[in-house]
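Subject: Protein entry, chain in single-letter code together with its fold tokens

Area: Proteins and the way their chains fold up in space.

Attached in line: The record itself begins immediately under this heading.
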Amino acid sequence: MFTEAERNYLQGQRLGRLVTLSRDGSPQARPVGFAVHEEFIEISGLALATTAKFRNIARHPTVSFLVDDLASVQPWHVRGVEIRGEAQALPAHDGTDAAIRIFPHALSAGDSPTAALSPAPSRRPYRSRHRLLSALRWRRIDVSDVAVVVSAAGR
């Protein structure tokens, strides 16, 4: 599922943010440690089965998982990968600890840690320079270089 570049970036990080939907449908974000496997991301931890995130996934399996880092402060350069998909809350059994497994449907990058990250397949292309730049700013990406490239390419 993950390219070599995606796997290398994810394996080089220790902390991600898991976003689940609470009972009332509002988002709940929590920092978690994780491990990268061939087809999924696995989250484990002490008393995981007693946490709100574990219960939330049992009710609403759709999740978002964000892994990011600050590559530089001069110039400001944030990198990150967002993984959207379905999660499974796996209770402890036969001596194994409880775990959460995330099976990705889509990967996207805030400012690509590599050029190989794949965008969500269902996204429509941006129809205008303004919408593209707004989306990038929303993700807190430095848009100065992007604006030049988009302007040079014409609308």
Notes: The beta strands are 15-21, 27-33, 35-36, 41-44, 62-73, 76-90, 99-109. The mean pLDDT is 78. The chain has two domains: 4-122, 124-155.
